[in-house]
Amino acid sequence: MNLNKNLIVGLTVAAFTALSGVSAMAQDVLKIGSYPANPPWEFKNEAGEFEGFEVDIINEVAARLGKTTEISGYDFRALFVATASGRVDAVISSLTITDERLEAQSFTQPYFSGALGVGTKTDAGIADLDGLEGKRIGSIATSFPENWLKEREAELGYASYSSYDTTANMLTDLRSGRIDAAVNDIVSLRYAFAQPTMQGLQVSVEIPTGDKFAIMMPKGSEHLEAVNDAISSMKEDGTMATLYEKWLGVAPAEGSLAVTPLPVPTSAD
C-alpha cells in the first residue's frame, strides 16, 4: 500500500515538474506574427527562415529580455486578428501607429519615420500625384497606404482602386498592366524594384507622410514596457543604428526616431 502510495506521489511530482518546465519554457518564447513578404523589413530567405530589419530588432529585443522568438507568417489583415486574440505576443510588419489602431492594439515606441512611394512602369508618364488622375491604382488591404488613398479618393481622382493581400500579387498586376500604379511603403518598393525580376518598374513619386513604424502588441500586453525599454537601450547603445544601416543602406539621421528613445505612445502624434 505504501509502495503504491509513494509511486503515485512520485508520478504526481514528476508530472507537475514536467508541466512546470513546459510552462517556464513557453514563457521564455515570444510568439511573433509577421507578414512574410515585406523586404527589407521582414521576409523568408531560401532556407525558409525569417530575416530583415524588424526581424533583427525583435530578435535583439528578445535576447535582452532573456527570451527567444518563434516567428510565424500571416496575411497582412490576419496580423490584427492575431494580436487581438492573443495568439501572438507581438507583430512586426512595418506597421504604422494610428489612433484607430491604438483603440484595439498597443504599440511600442517608433523606430522609423516612413514615406509612401508610387510605383509605376518606367514609361508610365506619372511624375507627381496629379498623374494618378484617371489611373487604376492598388495597395495592400488594411494598410496605411490603402487608408491614405481612400481618404484622398476625390482629391486624387483615380479611376479605380484594387486591394491586395500580398505585395507580390500587387506588383505582378503592376508589371502586367492590370493597374497603373502601386502605392506602398517607399523602402519596400525601392528594395523590390532593385531585384532583377522587377526591371522596368520604378518609384515615380515620393510622398512624405511622417507615419511612424513600431512593433504592435495586444492591448495592454504585460510585455509592452519591457519591450519598449529594450528598444530604448538599443537606440542608446547604437544597436538600432547599426541594424538600420545594415538593412536600409544609410545611417539614420541625428535626432531621428531610430536613435531617439521614447515612451510607449498613447496617440499617433
Quick tags:
269 residues; alpha/beta; D-Maltodextrin-Binding Protein, domain 2; 2 domains; nine-stranded mixed β-sheet; three-stranded antiparallel β-sheet; 10 helices; 12 strands; disordered N terminus; SBP_3_CS; Solute-binding_3/MltF_N; signal; Amino acid ABC transporter substrate-binding protein; Iontro_rcpt_C
Explain this structure:
- Residues 29-251 form the Solute-binding protein family 3/N-terminal domain.
- InterPro entries: Iontro_rcpt_C (IPR001320), SBP_3_CS (IPR018313), Solute-binding_3/MltF_N (IPR001638).
- Belongs to the bacterial solute-binding protein 3 family.
- It holds the Pfam family SBP_bac_3.
- Residues 1-26 form the signal peptide.
- Helix 2 (53-64) crosses helix 9 (224-236).
- Mean pLDDT is 90; it is low at 1-26.
- The chain is built from 10 helices and 12 strands.
- The strands form 2 sheets. Strands 1, 5, 6, 7, 8, 9, 10, 11 and 12 form a 9-stranded mixed beta sheet that branches. A 3-stranded antiparallel beta sheet has the order 2-3-4, covered by helices on one side.
- It has helices spanning 2-27, 53-64, 76-84, 99-102, 144-151, 153-156, 167-176, 186-193, 224-236, 239-248; strands spanning 29-34, 37-38, 42-44, 50-51, 68-73, 90-96, 105-107, 112-121, 136-140, 160-164, 181-185, 201-218.
- It starts with a helix and ends in a 21-residue tail after the last helix.
- A hairpin with a 3-residue loop joins strand 2 and strand 3 (42-44).
- It folds into 2 domains: 9-113 and 212-248, D-Maltodextrin-Binding Protein, domain 2 (3-Layer(aba) Sandwich), CATH 3.40.190.10; 115-210, Periplasmic binding protein-like II (D-Maltodextrin-Binding Protein, domain 2).
- By secondary structure, the chain is α/β, with parallel strands linked by helices.
